[in-house]
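Blackboard transcription, Thursday session:
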Amino acid sequence: MEYTESKSGLNFSRMALGCMNLPVEDEIAAEEIIEYALSQHINFFDTADLYQFGRNEETVGKILKRYQSRYNLYVGTKVGNEFDRSLQQKTGWNPGRKYIKAEIKMSLRRLGMDHIDLYQLHGGTIEDDMDDTILAFEELKSEGLIRSYGISSIRPNVIDHYYRKSNMDTLMLQLNPLDNRPEEFLEALDGITILARGPVMQGLFTDCHEYHLKEKFPDGIFNYPQEELSRIFAMLARHHDDLTALSFKYLIDKGAVIVTGVSTLEQLEKNLESLKKAAAMDENEMKTAEKLFKKERYEVHRL
Ligand SMILES: NC(=O)c1ccc[n+]([C@@H]2O[C@H](COP(=O)([O-])OP(=O)(O)OC[C@H]3O[C@@H](n4cnc5c(N)ncnc54)[C@H](OP(=O)(O)O)[C@@H]3O)[C@@H](O)[C@H]2O)c1
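(Written on the board underneath:)
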């Protein structure tokens, strides 16, 4: 496993485990996935207070605690979405300092931990009082409750503000050869570790592309109708034996941390195999495949 170090010294494994789709209702299955990830040198686990309205943090925290003495691991979670656990509903957006400093105590309790390695703002708008949010993160850092902070955002104007005004370590956004919207500003984000979510575009860059396309993208994606995507992925599959490796090669070349999301152990096993193939892949193979996709840009929330 290759590693990449962030500004604050977190040494992220090239592949991280996104815990959003873990089967948290089946703790044994969830533990099998996490244990396998650790055994394969994955050291970063991404959750959020919102995932399953607190249950994801509880399950992931409980499992990881059993391995903390044996492995050097990092936990990342997110804040900003107010939710009602009993109603299982998101109820609002709150990036305020007071809210963040109260909510971290809830996340720490659910995780069963005394600090959070990476605390991320789970979204945000240009109308937020972003300097108040930054102050909250800076205070939590000096109090030793977090080691570093970052944002999860696909809004160029919000990203620009945090990049210029904060000491954020990481930016999480969806990134893969199809959703290549971030490309126009990635290189300018000097010193920021990119956490690439959606690395297989929810299953499109896998051998189950047709199934995931029909199930998850009935209206197509961006300006691609479903039929066009079906043709593109069928063509990719005719020329490449591993679509996941193609997307991972694209992300490795960008220096991103691949936050792989899985719901089964088999998917994680396959994705780790694809990571090995990606590391050995010829650059031209990926570049030729990449040309099948249009260059996208974020149409709203621009600078
Ligand atoms: N706003 C945010 O901050 C935000 C938003 C989204 C995600 N995230 C984070 O990023 C992580 C990854 O995001 P994502 O779940 O969108 O990423 P993804 O890796 O593109 O998609 C994950 C899904 O793709 C399918 N899949 C993965 N590997 C597969 C394989 N080898 N074969 C067949 N299908 C496969 C599975 O779908 P099925 O489960 O349907 O089989 C899996 O749940 C999340 O876990 C979460 O930690 C953050």
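Lecturer's comment: The domain at 3-174 is CATH 3.20.20.100 (TIM Barrel).
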